[in-house]
TrEMBL record:
Annotated function: The central subunit of the protein translocation channel SecYEG. Consists of two halves formed by TMs 1-5 and 6-10. These two domains form a lateral gate at the front which open onto the bilayer between TMs 2 and 7, and are clamped together by SecE at the back. The channel is closed by both a pore ring composed of hydrophobic SecY resides and a short helix (helix 2A) on the extracellular side of the membrane which forms a plug. The plug probably moves laterally to allow the channel to open. The ring and the pore may move independently.
Assembly behavior: Component of the Sec protein translocase complex. Heterotrimer consisting of SecY, SecE and SecG subunits. The heterotrimers can form oligomers, although 1 heterotrimer is thought to be able to translocate proteins. Interacts with the ribosome. Interacts with SecDF, and other proteins may be involved. Interacts with SecA.
GO cellular component, one term: plasma membrane
Membrane-crossing segments per the record: 21-39, 80-100, 120-138, 150-169, 181-199, 211-237, 268-291, 311-329, 365-387, 399-417
Topology of the protein relative to the lipid bilayer: Multi-pass membrane protein
Protein name (record): Protein translocase subunit SecY
InterPro entries, per database record: SecY, SecY/SEC61-alpha, SecY_CS, SecY_dom_sf
Keywords: Cell membrane, Membrane, Protein transport, Translocation, Transmembrane, Transmembrane helix, Transport
Amino acid sequence: MKNFIETLRNIWRIKELREKILLTLGLLLVYRVGSNVPLPGIDIASLEGLKDQAAGGLMGLLDAFTGGAFSNASILGLGIMPYISASIVIQLLGLAVPAIQKLQKDGESGRTKLTQMTRYLTIAICAAQAPAYIANLGMQNVGYTLPQNLFWVLSIATLIAGTIFAMWLGERITDKGIGNGISLLIMVGIIANLPQAFMQELVAKVEQDSGGWVVFILEMAAIYLVIMFAIALTQAVRKVPLQYAKRTAAGGAVAGRPLGRDYLPLRVNAAGVMPIIFAQAIMFIPISVASFNQSESMSWVRNFFGDIQGVWYNLTFALLIILFTYFYTAIQVNTNNIADDLKRNGGFVPGVKPGRSTAEYLDEILSRITLPGAFLLAVLAILPAIAMMTGMTQQWAQFYGGTSLLIIVGVVLDTLMQIESYLLNRHYDGLMKTGRLKGRSTANAI
């Protein structure tokens, strides 16, 4: 405890780090306040139907990511998800569109243009989602006090502006604050549901005589182990040894190898949380279609995809996660580019020829470590369903794995890694005495 307090003092002594943390906390507070500001003209007393809709399924996932803004009919009701969708689309287009591939290789200027394209695409996605959101309010019997046409125009404009504002907050946090801003906004939205879920579970176990304090303490121990498992999966790497050729500088002196590690870290879970998000989106499509068709022929679809605790549902979910893990890893880790970069810098894998042979060698290693990583990710994704089978409430069970836990763990590790780098650069001890934090790459940040 003494070392922890001393670390906090060291953080506070560094003026630049202190200002970044305070700015980040301030902008996150603004985001949370905005999540509770309703759309103009909304009848707050009529939101029960919307809250019931957000209790589970795809809408529940959106509500969790927006920190309750979706079910509150807030000005930030769409949250930051349109920006995430636009980023994924741009990334996928990079596989097929040569112009985008060129921008991805153009360094800072290319990234600036891609960021601008992502912003425009975000506005386009918001323009499509905002009317759907307003139409859904009517389907859930949410009332409003303004004339219908005026309400639609104001609400659509407000929702689009709200997402743009959230995007701006995230970019400001990334540029001026600490951590990845977009990821922090999502994490804060998820954590906002944690106190309520905790109290519901506590009341259910203690006051409703569903096991008492003993079962509740066992649940706390279980969630601790699950968090440790998620951290291990996030940080696990396969270290590929590297060597660098010596280079002779002017005057005959030998120049040292380029700065960097003497090994190449290939992540066991290079895809991050994206396979779970893709798989969830696929699983929600059939039930969403079946909800508009109440015929008897679609009943099996509603039964199969509506039972998130079912064996076949979770087996299908796990298989989709494994497939998407391989797919997104192939997108995220380009072994040909890695091999070319090593060759240009005089680096090579001992016993492997530079160039194509190195790319094939790295690709083989990546294929081998991705398989256990995909299986472990699938296990982590279905843990919330297993937790619900044991009698936990749905809100509390979602923190036992899945998208929520992986995002929280990844963002916290990434933020702590940045804080530790500031401490070490100022000759202070890091956050951990036993080793250095290995946060995820910002490329994997959500």
